Amino acid sequence: MTKEITQPAQEPVAWGVFEGNLHDIFFTQSEAQEMAELKGSHAKVQPLYAAPPKTQTACCAECGKKESDGWFLYCVNCMEKANV
User: What is the pTM of this model?
Assistant: First the structure.
């Protein structure tokens, strides 16, 4: 059984105006969109994040199998071995 740990959706920290490469950075999407419109149809607006959004999956600290339930450090098999 694999269980993913849910996290809130990550919000952009800024908005970038790209003309092939990143050219301008704004803190609001509306400001970035306004600049892109001034630059022409080749300019694209994209959100910028502090780090790529990640999906975390709980895994066993002992064997690395992704079978723990997120609340315990070990999967069922390793937990049974530790309790012997």
Answer: 0.52
